[in-house]
Amino acid sequence: MRPLLRFIFFSLSFLLLVSQAQATHVRAGEITARRISTTSLTYEITFTGYFDLQNGRPAADAQVDVQFFVGSTGPIVVPRLLPIAEIGNNTSRNEYTFTYTFPAPGRFDISVNLDKRNNNVLNIGPPPTQELSFYIKSTLVINASLGQNRTPVLLNAPIDLAAVGQRYIHNPGAFDADGDSLAYRLVIPQQGIAGRPNGSNVQYADPNQVQPAGPTENGTFPPTFGIDALTGDLTWDAPSVPGFYNVAFVVEEWRNGIKIGEIVRDMQIIVVEARNDRPRLDSIPDLCVEAGSLIQQAIRATDKNGDRLILTTSGGVYRADLIDPQVAIFQPNQPPNPLGEAGGVFRWQTSCDHIRLEPYDVLFKVEDNAGPNFPNPNLFRKLVDIKSFRIQVYGPKPQNLTAEPIADAAGRAFRLTWDPYQCQIPGAQIVIYRKEGCSDFEANACQPGLPVSLGYQEVGRVAVGAISYVDNNDDQGLRRGVLYSYRLVVEFPRPGSNINEPGYLNGGGSSLPSSEFCLDLPLLIPVITNVTVDSTGTTNGQITIKWTRPIGLSPDALNGPSQYRLFRAVGLTGTDYTQIATINTQLVPGAADTLFVDRNLNTTQNAYRYRLEYYFTENNALVKLDDGEPASSVRLEQGNAESRQIRLQWTANVPWMNTNQRHKVYREDPANPGVFNQIAEVPVQGPETFSYIDDGTDRFAADGDISLQLSADSTYCYKVETVGTYGNNRIRPAILLNLSQIICVTPLDTIRPCPPVLSLDTLDCATLEPDAYCDQTTFTNNLSWIYPAQNAQNEECDPNIVQYNIYYARFADEQPALLTSVVPPPTPPSTTFAHTGLTSFAGCYVVTAVNRFGNESAPSNLVCKDNCPQFALPNVFTPNGDGRNDVFQPLNCPAFVESVEFRVFNRWGVKVFETTDLGINWNGKTNGGQDLAAGQYYYEAIVTFTSVNRPSEPLVLKGWIQLLR
């Protein structure tokens, strides 16, 4: 016999010697934590356990304490809180609570391991399941930068009956007092090792996989089982085999996109035969309400069997210790409903204190109860239905926002004012947003705040008590001629790091945005409307500049001659202006005095930026009115692209808006040199750098379809035309068109390299001899791969591969790093590499291909290899000093062993020897050096091996030893 792990293991009825003093029969449980100190990191930690009273009441009652681990600290013995609560379904709830002060912020795993689950659980193993321990863990993150953190609490008990053939649903009723976002995912239940802080997975199958499987409640196949990641609804549709089932799921906490903790619930589902249909709750719509609203929601349940119904509800909104100040209530219908019906009204007077980012979950549960007159009580089972709904409480919108231009040192500013805000939450801020142009956006009550797609930018924020703000000439630069829109949004604080600081109980969130207010700065100075490239060249390039006449001048300013002075700088952001034109004007209608053609430029290499000054006559002298906003030409460049493609990128530094428009892309017709055909209209929404990838397809058919296949052997010429606007009906033309220079480019490469297909020599652990690695100290992994002719999308792969890069990671959870590069043989498609000098086989690999242009393919498939660990122990040794078999040690050659914890017990359960020596080397004496009598002893060995997985799961061996003298 050559098993993967060579050991001798016998079940021992008296292994209670390494277990807790009292066996338990655990159905379900979870661990929660909450901070209780204002000055230290002191938390109240609670394990809530649910015990089987039908099959193990004495043992469950005897579980007077449990042992906690906080990280590696422990065990911490914690007594049970009294009294024990019986919650029905032959189940008791026990709570074990203690306080713990963490030494510093950090991430902490809190765990509990109880000796025995209850018996006859159908979907976990190995049987008997009462020999499996119950291990549960929660993770608490204490991070000063994230503020205060408490784990969620689970308000709905984890024990309900499910009926054969009927849909089952459970919801934990999770509530997070910090307002953190919650997410749910299934995990495998775990068992632990006595006296150790970590656990390992049991043998597990989803409940719907227990055979024979039946149909869903509606008669379809196959049955389903899963959890809703958003709501936490655990649904099984439908059970087919009566019995106990255990499942586990994680409730994750997220804040600001960061996972900050999680708790695990391991729960039991009790499936029974029942000649009874489950009751039904009517669907309940989710609500989005403004803080201060009164919620009144009707709830209704029915039972087609006409059974008496019990309707209950749970959620954080009912608990004064979780929300402040006013809680919700549920008022059952009065007088009571007839048999087969139940209902009532959910009422909650919301307030400003209830505003938070995440919705409140409210759970309703209906249970049928036939009562003593049911004709056959032995066949009647109480069944349930669950529905939950979510309530989003948002802040009211700020009211009566107005703005007006003011004169300041820079000459450009607006003063904003608004009414005092309705919800004066400590720590809240009013955020001022501005955008160019106006819109008719109306906020969705279920989506507070401002969508990014609207283009608003934050320009400032003030305390929630403020009623005004001055927006002056900041880094973004208020510009004349531009129509601006302002809105206000109130943001509420997340939980603080100290219980006494403002906003500690708030859960973040936003108000609805205020109504829009639009205005512009007085338009006196002429504004530039066009900077368009007429021709491209190194010495003969040409640009046309256009502008408006002055608008809004007083009559006196229009008397006498006026003058335009035009300046030019090199580059999109150039500031080295040189005056290039002086144009005198009498502002005569129809005069050609608002246009200038700038010639003899190097438009091939340079963009150009222009600034206009306007002078009017005052006291017989020319006086400058104001500085105009500069505007640049459009600059077109080639960017990186994929195979058989050309990426075009263009930029313009202008005072008008080129966003929310459709720019035009032109490509020269190869058959008609000098003739450009429009190939695309590109919708752009920001930022100010725009792009388009040309794959040869003509996507604008109005002027003819000139599609072609791009080739690395050809050159293609392009120009773009931007489309912009000031968004101001006083400026004409309303639509501003400007051309870029022409660029001619060549695709760098037409075919990309494809990822190779990698394989790795494997080990057949079952066929290895016991002494396979006795004299081996270094190991080799042999890689081989094939380079495909086509990728998974049936696209051609570049055959011109000049190099393969090999990446290696010691552990499966690591990102592989470059190990080496190899040059392929003259005739692909396959090649090999031997990774030598390793201390074990454990490791993972990917390979990439590199073509002649230096382009690297995507990684190949990830291939990992693990060791074949070997560890076997004998049953007999003779420490009699005859030089033969005097020492108890592993058989043959143990391989890839990292650590050993070995303990020996006598028949009364007393530990007589322990060691961490990898070779054990027990000489039949106690640790104190005393000879032990001949006889039978019992051992426990916890062995960890070198593995590709991290952490390596320990192997627990238990057996007997015959000591002979």
From TrEMBL:
<protein>
    <submittedName>
        <fullName>Gliding motility-associated C-terminal domain-containing protein</fullName>
    </submittedName>
</protein>
<dbReference type="InterPro" id="IPR013783">
    <property type="entry name" value="Ig-like_fold"/>
</dbReference>
<dbReference type="Pfam" id="PF13585">
    <property type="entry name" value="CHU_C"/>
</dbReference>
<feature type="signal peptide">
    <location>
        <begin position="1"/>
        <end position="23"/>
    </location>
</feature>
<keyword id="KW-0732">Signal</keyword>
<dbReference type="InterPro" id="IPR026341">
    <property type="entry name" value="T9SS_type_B"/>
</dbReference>
